[in-house]
Amino acid sequence: QVQLVESGGGLVQAGGSLRLSCAASGRSFSNYFMAWLRQAPGMEREFVQGISGSGDRTYYADSVKGRFTISRDNAKNTVYLEMNSLKPEDAAVYYCAAGPDLGRIPRQYTYWGQGTQVTVSS
User: Fold this and answer.
1) Band of the pLDDT at 23, cuts 50, 70, 90?
2) Which residue from 32, 34, 35, 30 is spatially nearest to 46, judged by alpha carbons?
3) Distance (Å, rounded) from C-alpha 27 to C-alpha 91?
4) Is 63 within 8 Å of 83 (Cβ atoms)?
5) Tell me: the pLDDT tens digits for 60-71?
6) What burial class does residue 52 get, using C-beta atoms within 10 Å of its C-beta: 0-12 exposed, 13-18 middle, 19+ buried?
7) What is each CA distance from 44 to 47, 54, 122, in whole angstroms?
8) Which residues contact 15 (CB under 8 A, 6 or more apart)?
9) Contacts of residue 36, Cβ cutoff 8 Å, sequence gap at least 6
10) What does the alpha-carbon distance between residue 37 and residue 61 come to, in Å, rounded to a whole number?
11) What are phi and psi of 45, to 5 degrees?
12) Residue 27: is its pLDDT beyond 90?
């Protein structure tokens, strides 16, 4: 069992930056592929970025390429999402998720956080 708690969301102007954190409790954090997914109102939840258990492989959605960076600190059981050059279309609830391997589909993830709201003003 893994519990995930996100933090760091908030209101930011377009072009600004935010750093999201996801603290995990439970065993074997480094065994899990971790990802950030987001869901805007009226839209389906979508994959944003993911990182392998050891941190040596990362994956991203084209929409955030060059702007967002995922990282993890297995000693702290924490995964991060650094978001730069934010756009109004990045506004969504951002979820941290854990699963056995890379998945670009939400149902491929086993554990979920409660989400943190990111609002981007234009």
Assistant:
1) very high
2) 35
3) 32
4) no
5) 999 999 999 999
6) middle
7) 10, 29, 23
8) 85, 86
9) 20, 22, 48, 49, 50, 70, 79, 81, 94, 95, 96, 97
10) 10
11) -70, 135
12) no
Supply the DSSP symbol for 22: E
Q: Are 115 and 4 in contact (CB under 8 A)?
A: no
Average of pLDDT values for 24-31? 91
- At 34, the amino acid letter reads M
pLDDT at 26: 82
Pull the structure tokens for residue 19.
């750093």
R_g over Cα of the chain: 13
pLDDT tens for each residue of 50-99: 999 999 999 999 999 999 999 999 999 999 999 999 999 999 999 999 99
Mean pLDDT of the chain: 96
Length of the chain as a residue count: 122
Tokens at 32, concatenated = 């899990």
